[in-house]
Every structure is written in structure tokens, then in C-alpha cells.
Amino acid sequence: MHDLPDTEEADAAAERYWPDHFKGVLRTALQERVEGPFLRERAFEELYRRLYAASFSDYASFCRRLAEGVVIGAENGVDETLEAIRRTLSRKKALPEKRPLAVYFWPDPFDADLTRILQREVFEEWGTHPVFRHLYEDHYTGPLSFDDFVAALAETAVSGARNGADGMLGEIYRAFLFERPLPSFRRRPRLVR
Q1: How far is 73 from 89, CA to CA, in rounded Å?
Q2: Of 66, 73, 77, 179, whose Cβ has the fewest other Cβ atoms within 10 Å?
């Protein structure tokens, strides 16, 4: 057998990921905005007792897990949006449209404050990252200035987060409706650029 050095760890350390530090803000702010109404309204207490009490120690931990699932859905929504942005810009096409849904499930945590906070966080992070400068200079063919380009990307990313969170709420509510186990909450792997 050939004596080859194992470079797996070095290769993994050298991978360059899409910037996603704003997800920390998304995690904390969205978690609170989903978990709070679930606990205050006690809307799912009967379902919890009947179907999920064996899996969770109390109603609060059940609500915490539901909120974590919604956050994971939002993060996955941002990742899907980033992929759409990358695909369209690599083909030198227009920016993907933000696609808000007609109706959002309760508690629709993306109020104006959260939307503004997230858009600002995304704008500040992406506006200073060289990969987005590269996308703008080498792949974007539209009329926007760089700041307007990043602002449009931020709006699209937050729209993706909102749609992802709502999609996960829909899966949770379907599990409630059909008295099934909760859906699995899995984050997508970090996106390599």
C-alpha cells in the first residue's frame, strides 16, 4: 500500500463557507418569538399531554423543541435562497425574486422589527464579505449599486428564512393534525462556496 498522508482534517479546515454569522441572531430572536407565544397561549398543551408527554419532560421543553425546529426551518430556508442566488448569478441572470407566501401560520414570528434586524445583520455581514463583492463585479449584470445589490440579497434571504420557518410550522401542524411524531429537525450542512 502507498504511504499517503491523511489530509482530511487539513482539507476540511481549508474549505471556505458562505458567511452565515447572522444565523446566530436568527437563532436567538426567532427562538424567543416562537417559543414565547407557544408557552403563553398554551395552545398545544392538550396535544402535548396526549401525544408527546412520553418524549418530553414538560410542556416548556416541548415548546422549546418546536421553536428549535422552526429556527432550523428558517436556517434551511436561507440556505436554499443562497443556493438560488448562486445559481442565478452564475448564469448571469437577474436576482431571484423574494417570494413571500400569501398566508403564514401562527405565530408568524417575522414581524417588522425582526425583519429589519435580520436584514441589517445580513447587509452588514454580506456587504463586507469579498465573495459578494466578487458576485457583484463578475456575475451581476443589473442596474443596482453594490449597496442596493446587497440590500436586495438581504431582503431575499430574510424572505427565504420566513418561508423556511413557515414550512417547518406547516410540517409540525400536519404532525399534530394526523397525530404523528414530530418531523425530524435537521440543519443542512454548511454551504461551501
Answers
A1: 24
A2: 179
